[in-house]
Amino acid sequence: MVTRVIAKKGIYRDSITLMQISTALGKLPGVSQAAAVMATELNRRVLFEAGFSGVEIAKAARDDMVVAVEAKDKHALDSAFDQAEKLLASQGGRPAGEKAAPTSLGAALQEVPDANFALISVPGQFAKREAAQALARGLNVFLFSSNVSLDEEVALKKTAEAKGLLMMGPDCGTSIINHKVFGFGNVVREGGIGIVSASGTGLQEVSTLIDRSGLGISQAIGTGAGDMSERVGGITMARGISLLEEDPNTKILVLISKPPSPVIAAKVLGFARNCKKPVVVNFLGAAVGKEGLGSAKAASTLEEAADLACAVSEGKVDPPSPKKLPQELASAAKEEWNRLSPRQRYVRGLFAGGTLCYESQVILGTMFGRIYSNGPIRQEDKIPGEGPSKMNSCIDMGAEEFVEGRLHPMIDFSLRNARILKEAADPETAVLLLDVELGFGSNPDPAGELVPSITQAKALAARQSSYLSVVAHIVATEADHQGLKNQEERLRAAGVLLAPSNASASRLAALIASRGTKPGGVG
Amino acid sequence: MPKAKPKSSSIFASELKVVNIGIPTFADDLESQGVAVVKVDWKPPAGGDAEMAGILEKLGA
Predict the structure, then answer these.
(1) In the Cβ-directed half-sphere of A458, how many Cα atoms lie within 13 Å?
(2) Residues A321-352, buried b or exposed e (16+ Cβ, 10 A)?
(3) Interface predicted TM-score of the whole assembly (ipTM), two decimals
(4) What is the number of other CB atoms lying within 10 angstroms of the CB of residue A276?
(5) Mean pLDDT score of chain A, rounded to an integer?
(6) Among A3-7, A92-96, A154-158, A175-179, where is mean pLDDT lowest?
(7) Chain A closest CA to B45's CA: distance in Å?
(8) Residue A184 near chain B (CB below 8 Å)
(9) Peptide bond into A388 cis (omega under 30)
(10) How far is Cα A106 from Cα A138, in angstroms, rounded to an integer?
């Protein structure tokens, strides 16, 4: 095998284009692996770990692109680099006869002067500039980019507030405005439940669970996680509540966030108490005192938030009874734990969704005590994201250390697949706990990405005289384009137990790893 | 309750018209939902130099 690495100074392409180029190069004859990436620190490390080396990588800056190819001989390498040049040259080009795309917001607005939203996903260091320009021109903004400082976020949100505009993000993964999905999100039914969420996957989980209960969503507004910091003070959360309170199609509000500081919690609860419409507040595991709630209702998990919203929507007075695991899953769990070897004891959660990772920690923590994570509930339980895992662990693979200059793990499964094999090789791992997101923005075939690594992981455990149990939840609706049924069938065929929510998947994983001693609501 | 600005209701009342700046697939997804989208062919300003871009911005370039 021979390798070659070429750095291209100051050449930028977005992550999705680069993944497409990497995939195309990797499929060429004689090529064993190929990567076209921006030279962020993370990507340079991944290249070194993949066996690429040399000054080209070491010297490259994060605004440079690196193309790295491993092939059987020089001829195959030459062909691959020729192809790389062609692909790079063709990206951004338009078919003959079509006019060139605008290269700035100003030029775009000449084409569509009445545009009302900007969807911005440029690298973080340029994001504030683009968002500020959009607000200045009277556009509402959905800012997907992360790595924008809290001070910049405050400035953007204050500008938006003064102009009566909606500023979603930075670091906003999901919104559903007028039943259209911005960023990562699912095709959910239309209905009377409005959501304001500081969490992208929290919004996805609650909106899909509501859909699967037969109800629907009016609007779902993402704020970005930074909105609930004391520095930002929930500016977009407040604006979202206000908009939904005035929206005639919204009958009930659901507010979602990881536990905010007491100051922000009190502020949001104040809005909830005074809202003219019923409100369900979900601060994920954080206890909310009755006195602070007024007529609003508190949910401790995403699943409970969805159930409460549905119950209120249907006019039920009593709160829904806690969810129990379906009988067939409880039975399947027993079969799984009977196959574990005595030293297999722990749940290892590997998540694409940060809030799902957090929700699992909340649920597993009530049963096992300490849950270790790169995004822990308590700082003393923090472990590095890159591993190794420790006892019961939940890793957020969408955390900053995994995504700088790379695609989100909902699209690019390579780092999570590698980690699945690492966890399988650990003789103490009993259960792998995974989330799988369908819908807009996500990978076109998550089952196709996961099944080979799950099969390999199960085989690896079997060679160690162990049995690897794999539990997952698919965040999706029947209407998502990847085809929920097909995804379910293929994951089940690979030996994955599928639970109807992330909360129930967490309870199922605990049940298996504890050999039935941590029942957690088994029916 | 935070005050509702008069302009707020128009956010949901108007038909969405979106300018996409960055990852093109986000624009494709919106288009597939029937939303009118203009895609900006975005490149980092000042050849990717954030500091220089900031200076240009201040100069109004």
Answers:
(1) 15
(2) eebebeeebbebbeebbeebeeebbbbbbbbb
(3) 0.84
(4) 9
(5) 92
(6) A92-96
(7) 8
(8) no
(9) yes
(10) 12
B39/A101 touch (CB, cutoff 8 Å), yes or no:
yes
Question: For residues B53 and A21, what is the distance between their CA atoms, to the nearest angstrom?
Answer: 28
Chain-chain contact of A181 with B19 (C-beta, under 8 angstroms): no
Beta strands in A23-152 (DSSP E): 31-38, 65-71, 117-120, 140-143
A48 touches chain B (CB under 8 A): no
Mutate to test the interface with A, among B7, B10, B18 (most CBs of A within 10 A): B18
Beta-bridge partners for B48: none
pLDDT at B57: 54
How long is chain B?
Answer: 61
Q: Which residue has the tokens 């005639």?
A: A248
Judged on CB neighbours under 10 Å (0-12, 13-18, 19+), A97 is exposed
Which residues of B are less than 8 Å from A181 in CB distance?
29-30, 33
Q: Return the H-helix or E-strand segment holding A484.
A: helix A484-493
CB atoms B48 and A12 under 8 Å: yes
CA–CA dist A454, A497 (Å, integer): 12
Reported as a single tens digit per residue, the pLDDT across A319-364 is 777 778 889 999 999 999 999 999 999 999 999 999 999 999 999 9
Strands B17-21 and A117-120: parallel
CA quadruple A231, A233, A236, A242: dihedral, nearest 10? -170
Map tokens 């001693």 to a residue. Answer: A517
Phi, psi of A256 (to 5 degrees): -125, 130
Which residue reads 């092939």 in tokens?
A71
| Residue A223 amino acid letter | T
Of residues A450 and A295, more confidently modeled: A450
* Residue A243 sits at the chain B interface (C-beta within 8 Å): yes
Alpha-carbon distance values, A408 to A106, A143, A376, A442, A520 (Å)? 29, 15, 20, 9, 31
* Sign of the torsion angle spanned by Cα atoms A46, A412, A93, A40: negative
Give the rounded distance of the alpha carbon of A202 from its chain centre.
Answer: 9
Is A178 touching B (CB cutoff 8 A)?
yes
Calculate how close chain A gets to B56, using CA atoms only, in Å.
Answer: 11
Is the pTM higher than 0.95?
no
Q: Phi and psi (nearest 5°) for A108?
A: -65, -40
Separation between Cα atoms, residue A368 and residue A160, nearest integer Å: 44
